[in-house]
Design brief:
The protein has about 180 residues and is mostly helical. The chain contains 8 helices and 2 strands, in the order H-H-H-H-H-H-H-H-E-E. The chain has a two-stranded antiparallel ribbon. The longest helix has 15 residues. The N and C termini lie far apart (about 60 Å).
């Protein structure tokens, strides 16, 4: 039994307080040595992919504290808020992101997603058009979101409160695709 404890005890000094998030949960960021090397956006993206939206939000906020409120950090914070259902905050932050960087196609797309979630289909259609133009039509996800917004805005019987049969799907590090569900 003592033979098993020795290797474990030898590993303990390798862990220090920097390895843990404030909540006590371990933040996994392979290949990143010290706290000064950790990019809060990278850690946040990994946490979002793992479905840990509150922890991702905290990581994005730490990134904003060190990098400033730029288009990337605002968009990331807005995306976490979107996943947490905080649509008002998400919309406000995403509008700030596109105001800072009007060429950020993913932020325009995500603003459109937020607007669709809120039932603002006509404005979402305009925002998706802007995202599509900014991206030069390269993104299939943006194209699909634009098509859906056009179809819903041209349907006179569409009621966003009762006919919202869409599902958000996260693609990549922060882009969202709206899928039509049966």
């Amino acid at each position: 039994m003592k033979a098993l404890l020795i290797p474990v005890l030898l590993l303990l000094p390798a862990c220090d307080q920097e390895d843990f998030a404030p909540s006590g949960e371990r933040v996994f960021a392979p290949g990143l040595a010290g706290e000064s090397d950790i990019d809060g956006l990278v850690v946040g993206h990994r946490l979002m992919a793992a479905g840990q939206y509150e922890l991702a939000l905290k990581s994005y906020q730490r990134a904003a504290a060190s990098q400033g409120l730029n288009a990337d950090t605002l968009s990331a914070i807005a995306s976490a808020n979107l996943q947490l259902g905080r649509l008002n905050q998400a919309e406000r932050l995403m509008r700030q992101a596109v105001a800072i960087d009007p060429t950020f196609a993913a932020a325009w797309n995500n603003l459109g997603v937020i607007l669709m979630e809120r039932g603002n289909v006509v404005e979402a259609r305009q925002v998706f058009r802007r995202a599509f133009a900014t991206d030069n039509g390269q993104s299939e996800e943006i194209r699909d979101n634009l098509k859906l917004a056009i179809a819903k805005s041209e349907d006179p019987g569409y009621n966003p409160t009762t006919d919202n049969n869409t599902k958000l799907v996260r693609r990549g590090t922060g882009d969202y695709l709206i899928l039509q569900t049966p």
